[in-house]
Design brief:
The protein has 8 helices and 9 strands. With 222 residues, it is of the alpha/beta class. Strand 4 (92-95), helix 5 (102-108) and strand 5 (116-119) form a beta-alpha-beta unit. The chain starts with a helix and ends with a strand.
Length: 222
């Protein structure tokens, strides 16, 4: 929705890692593009740990792409973006949530400026719970928490709160968790909203690299 409906891009090339994550993500993007009325995007694969991207970059030029979506691990994405900028390519770059990481910013450096990624982490920076969690995680593991760490923490907090409320009987714990249906839950990583199946359906955040850091906003609903 953001790439095609809001920005009105027409020719988008998808670069994906040559693994399950990359291939599945590229397929999902192509299918979503088709659903909003766009012809199939050109999909190019990145070999893991590769540092030479001349062939893919030339195909992007030949396609006259006005946007590039990268669905890969942070190191691969950072390397290809650096290669793009070094060769004078100025297409807007978008990426999956794996790029919303300190590793990506560190490797890509100034080449990361302007890159937009989906971000399943959208904490309020001033929230004391988020600050406390960040500090505790860094002390324990000497690195910043990623989305998996944050969601594992939030999920376990919900389970523990349900156990405190209902005891240790599994059926009663499940009933207590069902209290979250159609309600919000403020975790350290974001505010969640659960539907009747207990899936989190809160609006997704987008983040743009500005001044060497990610600046987030909530994506409008399509």
């Amino acid at each position: 929705d953001y790439v095609f409906n809001q920005l009105k891009l027409r020719r988008v090339v998808v670069l994906c890692g040559d693994d399950g994550y990359g291939n599945d993500g590229a397929q999902s993007f192509v299918e979503a593009a088709w659903l909003v009325g766009h012809e199939q995007s050109l999909v190019l694969r990145l070999k893991q740990d590769a540092n030479e991207f001349a062939g893919q970059l030339q195909q992007i030029r030949d396609a006259a792409a006005d946007g590039v979506v990268i669905w890969s691990n942070p190191s691969e994405a950072a390397s290809v973006i650096k290669a793009m900028r070094a060769s004078g390519m100025n297409q807007q770059v978008y990426g999956s949530d794996r790029l919303a990481s300190p590793q990506f910013l560190e490797i890509a450096g100034r080449a990361a400026e302007g890159v937009v990624v989906t971000s399943i982490l959208s904490p309020a920076e001033s929230d004391p719970r988020w600050r406390q969690f960040q500090s505790a995680y860094r002390r324990a593991f000497d690195e910043a928490p990623n989305s998996y760490a944050c969601h594992a923490y939030d999920g376990m907090r919900m389970v523990l709160e349900a156990i405190k409320k209902a005891g240790t009987d599994r059926a009663q714990v499940m009933n207590a968790l069902r209290d979250y249906e159609s309600k919000d839950y403020q975790g350290v990583s974001a505010r969640f909203h659960f539907d009747h199946t207990l899936n989190n359906v809160a609006p997704l955040a987008l983040a743009r690299v500005e001044g060497g850091r990610f600046v987030q906003w909530t994506a409008p609903q399509p």
